[in-house]
Write a structure and sequence with these properties.
Elements (H helix, E strand, L loop, with lengths): L3 H67 L8 E4 L11 E4 L10 E4 L9 E4 L8 E9 L8 E10 L2 E8 L2 E8 L2 E9 L8 E8 L2 E6 L2 E2 L5 E2 L7 E7 L4 E9 L3 E4 L27 E10 L2 E15 L2 E12 L3 E2 L1
Antiparallel strand pairs: 1-17, 2-3, 3-15, 4-14, 5-10, 5-15, 6-7, 6-14, 7-8, 8-9, 10-11, 11-12, 11-13, 15-16, 17-18, 18-19, 19-20
Keywords: Membrane, Transmembrane, Transmembrane helix
Length: about 325
Amino acid sequence: MEDIRTASARQSFAGRSGVGLIETVIAIGVVTILVIVVAGFSNTQRLQRHSQYLTLARQLLIEEVEALRSASFADLGNRTATSFIEVGYNSGNWSIQDPVNPRSSPYVYAAGSATGSANPSRQIVPVGRIGDATMELYFRARNESQASWRTGMYIRYHDTQNYYLISVSAAQITMVRVVEGVQTQLWTKAKAFSKDVWYSMRVTATGGAFTISINGSYETGAPINDNTFDQGLYALAALDGVTADFDDVFVSNITSNFWSFPAVTETVDQVASGWQRTGPEDLPSGSSSITITDLETGHSDIKEIDLSVTWKEGSNIQSLSNTIYINRLSVLP
């Protein structure tokens, strides 16, 4: 006969084994549900991000098409897979800061360290494309700036390959013209600038004549003359290892616009209110491409223009494309 204690133990062990199996089945079910929920949530997030990226890419294409519609036909030269033209995007790290010695209390608009001439920090002034204008600003190169620092302003800016740039360094003031990426120095003057000191810069563009003032004194003497660009965007510029502060930015065209970056409208560590502008850099590994060719060989009156915006989602490359045709008189569907 089986010992009562042995039988009791076997029953108890069997009971525990049965409960353990049920608990295991339930646990597996719960984990499975959690995996499904997490996977579903992850898929939803991916779809939302894809939709956001697609919307931004579409906006960039529309903006480029509108810019091409407004551009001079002469500016639509043939090119292969370059970045978008006739549009200006912000670049670099810009934010409202609360320094010890602002030009006007309490805030300044600061550009983080610019890495070089090929990768400048640029902030488009929100006044649109204008021609004749006066732009004035206060700037200083912070003490942490590299010895090669430069800062200043872009005027009549078209895109990364076409613009005027007025800049100052530790030893000089310079105005250059860049056409299809080729730089030409229009004017320069030796003048010393110190770090951590506020200076004012004022540039007036009237037709093809330009004058430059520093701290209220004309530096150019006779105007600088050049007729390459008659209109464009205006922008703050930081180059060649500078960490720069800007304040009291003024642009006058038909109307006057002034930004002192007051606390009532600004937030520290954020882009200045109203200065936000999206571009391909806002997409993960984003880039733009434009190719312009003659519709028929030997006939340059009609251009075929292929546009695309490309970005990366995980390991997948995504893109959105469009093709338009422009003749000397109109944009063709």
